[in-house]
Known about the structure:
It is built from ten helices and 13 strands. It has helices at about 50-60, 75-85, 125-130, 150-155, 155-165, 185-195, 205-210, 220-225, 270-285, 290-300, and strands at about 15, 20-30, 40-50, 65-70, 90-95, 100-105, 110-115, 140-145, 170-175, 200, 235-240, 245-250, 250-255. The protein is α/β, with parallel strands linked by helices. The radius of gyration is 19 Å and the shape is globular. A hairpin with a 5-residue loop joins strand 11 and strand 12 (about 245-250). The N and C termini lie far apart (about 40 Å).
Amino acid sequence: xxxxxxxxxxxxxxxxxxxxxxxxxxxxxxxxxxxxxxxxxxxxxxxxxxxxxxxxxxxxxxxxxxxxxxxxxxxxxxxxxxxxxxxxxxxxxxxxxxxxxxxxxxxxxxxxxxxxxxxxxxxxxxxxxxxxxxxxxxxxxxxxxxxxxxxxxxxxxxxxxxxxxxxxxxxxxxxxxxxxxxxxxxxxxxxxxxxxxxxxxxxxxxxxxxxxxxxxxxxxxxxxxxxxxxxxxxxxxxxxxxxxxxxxxxxxxxxxxxxxxxxxxxxxxxxxxxxxxxxxxxxxxxxxxxxxxxxxxxxxxxxxxxxxxxxxxxxxxxxxxxxx
Length: 324
């Protein structure tokens, strides 16, 4: 599906990464006994994956994102395309079933995911670069979930470098490596960070990248260590969940504390929603503090909504307005 190209000179927001189908179910009070059946009061079948979540959040904000990823070659893939209506998409069709995640939401707020391999194994760098055009000044390319995309991961550092050479500010949300933070993974990720203008991670990921072995260590030393791995002038953003977010650039950190939101059933995609709000604000030349605030407002506006497919395009545009 292709929509009109953005006007020449307009900063572009491109998103490259995982697109799949999510089935969200809840709430589960305790793990059921094997072989039994349990009824759950809420469910939603929707487009998922970090890249799709980010693109949908952009649509909610009234933006015109460009989503590059992959889909399978089954009926579920066609359904998935319908969910992305209004978004300019370039999706590589792979000879595979569509990847699906089942997310079980627990009463204590935690989540359990079961994800099939599916088409995510087949997205190629050549396809991404073919559909990532030269960028207008100020454009951003957000890369998500490289650990779930082995076709991209194999030469991911070079892919980021080529995106940068096309004129994009490179933003990266690493996600969590399935094999854990091994020495080899650390070396791999350090190669990625050298190309990043914006690194968007949660607190545990930041400490893991910093190779912090003390879970009780203050966040700031880890932030300083990770920041040294980024290109000069890059922004390190650490998502702190309900506590807000921290931004670090040029040796200085600032925190933005958000207001608590009650009665949130579905926290899937919280970080992806934050990423989009933050980057959308940066596209509008917002300050670091205002961009952190926009990211938090975007996440807290989306999370209480269930089902999310009822959020209209542009309905949450107010999240990008500076607050007095």
